[in-house]
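Hi V.,

You were right to ask for the full record rather than a summary. Here it is.
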Amino acid sequence: MKHTAKLPAPDPIAQQHSDKLLQLIFQTIEDHHGWLSFAEFMQMALYLPGLGYYSNGLSKIGEAGDFITAPEISPLFSKALGNHIADVLKQIPEADCLEFGAGSGQMAVDLLLYLAEIDCLPKHYYIIEASAHLREMQQQKTDEKLGTLKNIVIWLDQLPAEFDGVIIANEVCDAMPVHRILFEKDQLLEIGVGLHQGNLEWQTQPITNPELKARCEQIQPQLELFPYQTEIALQAPAWLSTIANLLNQGAIYLIDYGYEVKDYFHPVRNQGMLRCHYRHHPHNDPLILIGLQDITAHVEFTALAEAAYMEGLQVDGYQKQSDFLLAGDILTLSQLDSTDSFEQMQQAAALKRLLLPEQMGELFKVLSLSKGVTLPRSKAGDLRHRL
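Predicted structure:
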């Protein structure tokens, strides 16, 4: 397996692990007549039991891992989110919370401690986690940090039949498999993964998936430049449709990095927006470091909003992360949180990362969806007109 000279080399054990997964991918490609869609490849690279990136037990989050999420930067993120959540919980008797992909468990811990502080706890705090390793980390953290509050945290292996309360997905949709497409003036091609001289390589073929082809035909008239290469997400809107159907009353907060449709398919992004993370080194080659690096794609929020609307949800807000957190009173929370000068300096640095446009404040967006409740904070800096 090749990796670029700028990236740290894996240790021998990690390399052995990666090679084992790579051999299984090679075999799968051969079983599929020499070609695998990128969505299928991404699914294996990230989620294959025991070997995929999210299933293999290697460090992922924090300084020792590959990336840091907003809840890891400061508890102020979770507290500001908690104010949004509290607005909803107060409107529903015996409401629950459900978090998808809870990472290290830090956000769940900080949220529950804050909701307890303001006397607005959910009846249960459910977590659905695909990674057995991360689930174990979450259970350990909640045991250590929550005291008796840990009793309301429950891990689920499947979706509940119905749900009342708040559903949270922070940096979840970006890790759902996507298809890669090459738009040419006279044809549509899907970019998949094949083999050449014992190595993975990009290969194209005509689109055979009817749903994917229909979506591409919707997008093609909006493009201003050919050839144009991009990612198309089918799984994320389908997932959102599913959870919209189980929501009786409550809200869904989707927090991720991405764009609305016009900016997503802008000519400047004609090479697509795949992003990989390995030991805090971002790059754009998913065909290396198999099983050792995260693979993500920017979220196309218009498709998510349309899926939600089609399932009867109210699209209440589409905000930059900075506006969402400011509406959650993050600045007031920071003033109350500490009088220690060193902690205040740490908070100031964290606020810059969370709020400034050149950091996470503008690239990350929050899509707020509801059914049968009002979201009073979702209109600050509202960008729904751009969806």
